[in-house]
Design goal:
Distance between the termini: 29 Å
Number of strands: 19
Shape: globular
Structural class: mainly beta
CATH class of the largest domain: Mainly Beta
Strand content: over 45%
Number of helices: 1
Radius of gyration: 18 Å
Number of domains: 2
Largest sheet: 4 strands, antiparallel
Helix content: under 10%
């Protein structure tokens, strides 16, 4: 995880708005039988872009964060609507990015802006089974590979950049250099090794979770 934080926290130069290169390829994922398939993120670093004005939405449904691999651009906002008929809490213990949105009921949404690139663990203080990973990137040039591992990223500025593939169960991010030209398509292949992970964690107080309890709307935990 530390390697991922370092690679996406690079200060990046501004790029031209008319860039139109394409990076296309596939990620070959290796995993054992005990590792379930998950989301594979492919992204470029080396340049900065402003975040979209529309928030990234992370639903809380059936005691899950959906999606559990969240991707945003630095300076952008992420919203967390509660779709379950009971309280949820959204917090992160990640060093230098610690936050706690408190507990809130069904139908309510809370938001947070993330100004800097980095990797942030997201949990619910009420439900230990809820976990997600937020990857904040320096630009908007990222995509999710399809079930076969294929991906395409359009509108990439001309230049030499680094392309990464990452998943929540990746042993480590994998990367390659890519040279992009205006109006051209660059083809690449990446390999990613996934390992077993259970995402167990402690609550926002650094303690083990208590046995499951029914929380009422007035519970401010």
């Amino acid at each position: 995880m530390r390697a991922l934080v370092v690679t996406i926290a690079v200060l990046c130069a501004a790029v031209r708005a008319d860039a139109d290169g394409v990076v296309r390829g596939a990620v070959a994922v290796t995993r054992g039988k005990d590792v379930p398939p998950g989301t594979v993120l492919v992204y470029l670093v080396g340049f900065a872009e402003p975040a979209p004005s529309t928030p990234v939405v992370v639903k809380q449904v059936n005691k899950r964060f959906i999606p559990d691999l969240i991707v945003a651009t630095a300076g952008g906002t992420v919203s967390f609507p509660n779709g379950d008929p009971f309280l949820h809490n959204v917090f992160s213990p990640t060093s230098e990015r610690v936050f706690d949105m408190g507990s809130y009921p069904q139908g309510e949404t809370r938001t947070r802006t993330f100004p800097k690139p980095g990797v942030i663990d997201i949990f619910c203080n009420i439900h230990p089974e809820m976990s997600a990973t937020l990857v904040v990137l320096p630009n908007t040039k990222f995509t999710i590979a399809d079930a076969s591992g294929a991906f395409e990223i359009k509108g990439v500025p001309a230049g030499t950049w680094t392309v990464f593939a990452y998943s929540r169960r990746a042993e480590r991010p994998t990367s390659t250099k890519v040279v992009v030209s205006d109006g051209a398509t660059t083809q690449i292949e990446l390999q990613l090794n996934e390992v077993p992970r259970d995402f167990k964690h402690r609550n926002k107080f650094g303690e083990a979770y208590r046995p499951s309890t029914i929380y009422n709307p007035g519970d401010a935990r």
